[in-house]
Each structure stands twice: as structure tokens, then as C-alpha cells.
Amino acid sequence: MSKAPDYLEPTIGWRGWFVVEDGQATRLSSLVYPTLWPPRRELLATCRHRPLSLLPPWRRRPPDHDAPEERCRCGIYGTADPEEAAAYLEDRILHPEPLRWPLLHRVIGRVSLWGWVAECEHGWRASHAYPERLYVPSLHEEHQTACDASEIARELTAYGVPIELLECGTRED
Asked: For the ranges 25-34, 137-146, 154-163, which has the lowest average pLDDT?
């Protein structure tokens, strides 16, 4: 049985991404789970919430619901406020396990959310998502040094969305 989408138009939220190197390609990766966002294809949500994560992998069962589910925290997140997304990107240790790919940079952007959309405290969780616009800062957050933001932006054109470079000062500014 399929469920009708919650809205006629996509909901636009804000989020951050890691920019990683996947083989020979530069890709967006989620901040929390090791998920690459495919270029020119929507990302489909799956539930990865494992309340019994202490169980060995062979004893864990997959979730019995589609994402997002009202009683779960699953889904693809977008915040209503760009400052919230920026704080999430900068101030938290996000990835619970080592990244699978070399980290090149971090970016912020707007994300289109559609399909099943659940409103939450600071934004939304959705079943489908795709970047709507990307902003590439000139400062590499990990090392507080200038990076070749224009090269990162050029590599991210594979996503086919508008990309803007953001001039950032160093922490000493």
C-alpha cells in the first residue's frame, strides 16, 4: 500500500554535508551516517535507528517501517533555519564511526524534502531529498586554513544545482 505525499511542493530546509572523495569523484556525504548523496538522483531515506545497537550484527533486525516514521527519529533531515544547520555542521562531533572516504571539506546548503514529510522541533524529516543549492566556504573548518573552494565547487557541479562560494575569514580575524 502506498501513501500519498504530504505536500504538493517540496519543503525547502537547510543542512550541512561533508564533501568526500569517493574513488575519483567528489561527493556529498551525510554528517551522521556514512551515506553518499548520489548526483542527479534523489536520496531515499531508510531507518538506521538501532535502539539495541549493542546486539551483535547477526542478532539485529531491520526496522519494520518506512522512513520517516512518527514514532522514530529516522528520515532525511532539514532545518528551518540556516543558523541551526551551520551550528550542526560546525559545533558537533557528528559521525559516530570513522568516515569511509577522505574528508575534503564541509558545505552548507538548501535541501528539497518531499514524499512523506514529518515536522520536527527544528525542521523536517522526509522520505526523499536532494540538494537544492550549495554554499562552499573558502575556509576548511577542520584545519582553519584556506582551501581551494573553487575546485570543490567545480567538482560539486555534478549535482546540477546552483553553487555559491562563501568568503570566510580565519579564526584569528
From this structure: 137-146
100-104 contacts: CB < 8 A, separation 24 or more?
100/20, 100/34, 101/20, 101/21, 101/22, 101/27, 101/29, 101/36, 102/20, 102/21, 103/18, 103/19, 103/20, 103/142, 104/19, 104/20, 104/21, 104/26, 104/147, 104/152
**Model pTM score:** 0.81
**Which residue type sits at 18?**
F
| CA–CA separation, 168 and 147 (whole Å) | 11
Q: Is 9 exposed, middle or buried (0-12, 13-18, 19+ CB in 10 A)?
A: exposed
Tell me if 76 sits within 8 A of 127, measured CB to CB.
yes
pLDDT digits (tens, 9 = 90+) for 22-47: 988 999 999 888 899 999 999 999 88
Q: Which residues of 14-38 are buried (b: 16+ CB within 10 A; e: fewer)?
A: bbbbbbbeeeeebbbbbbeebbbbe
pLDDT of residue 123: 96
What pLDDT shows up at residue 72?
Answer: 85
